[in-house]
Design a protein that fits this description.
There is one protein chain. The protein is α/β, with parallel strands linked by helices. It has two domains: 2-116, Rossmann fold; 122-221, Arc Repressor Mutant, subunit A (Orthogonal Bundle). The chain contains eight helices and 13 strands. It has a five-stranded parallel beta sheet, sandwiched between helices. Strand 9 and strand 10 (147-148) form a beta hairpin. The radius of gyration is 19 Å and the shape is elongated. It starts with a strand and ends with a strand.
């Protein structure tokens, strides 16, 4: 597993790197946000540990640009700040987890393991499947355990966006942009309404609840 550590405090970066290498992770460290973004765009990593307070570009901006470019590499945010808004901002932009400094290395290692073992969709060309839920992008169909589920265009778009970003919390704003487009000026609660529609149709076929609500942030599958 290859992990990028983006941290401008040299002692913390070195300590985390040594501990991760001891756990047999392959690590690389960088202390500047712009440099980190260049590395992220040119190399592949299994996980990124990303501090918020960075020179060049702050961690939230690095994360925002990553997700905008379609890079869904798992990210654990690190910060010395413990405000609710910082946490919400990080999760809202697509962070997978959040850890406040100072932290115990054992907790960081546990969170890394949890993020890395999070379920990922099985993709085969135009097919995305996850625990009996199968979405065919070419045929524009959805089945649950072999039973077809009829969805409208918007319902299908919502489900596709969530499946393509499995285990990542997607905010209402992100889902609006992906499904309704950047020029949509209506209320964000339209996402909540359509999530209920999709849930009811899926749960008419199976008792399993695929779509989870992350209170105050958004929705995810996985």
């Amino acid at each position: 597993m290859k992990i990028l550590i983006v941290e401008d405090e040299a002692k913390i970066a070195r300590f985390v790197s040594l501990e991760l290498k001891h756990e047999e992770y392959d690590t690389r460290s960088v202390g500047d946000g712009r440099e980190a973004l260049d590395i992220i765009s040119s190399e592949e990593f299994d996980l990124i540990i990303l501090d918020i307070m960075l020179p060049g570009l702050n961690g939230l901006e690095v994360l925002r640009r990553m997700r905008k470019d379609g890079n869904m590499t798992p990210v654990i945010m690190l910060t010395a700040r413990d405000s609710v808004m910082d946490k919400v901002s990080g999760l809202d932009m697509g962070a997978n987890d959040y850890l406040t400094k100072p932290f115990a290395i054992e907790e960081l290692l546990a969170r890394i393991r949890a993020v890395l073992r999070a379920p990922k969709p099985v993709t085969n060309g135009d097919i995305i499947s996850y625990e009996g839920l199968v979405l065919d992008r070419q045929g524009h169909t959805v089945t649950v355990n072999g039973t077809e589920v009829e969805l409208t265009v918007k319902e299908y778009g919502l489900l596709q966006a969530l499946l393509e970003n499995l285990s990542t919390v997607m905010s209402r704003e992100q889902l609006l942009e992906k499904v309704w487009g950047y020029d949509y000026f209506g209320e964000t609660n339209v996402v909540d309404v359509y999530i209920r529609y999709v849930r009811s149709k899926l749960e008419a076929v199976t008792p399993k609840r695929y779509i989870q609500t992350v209170r105050g942030v958004g929705y995810k599958i996985g």
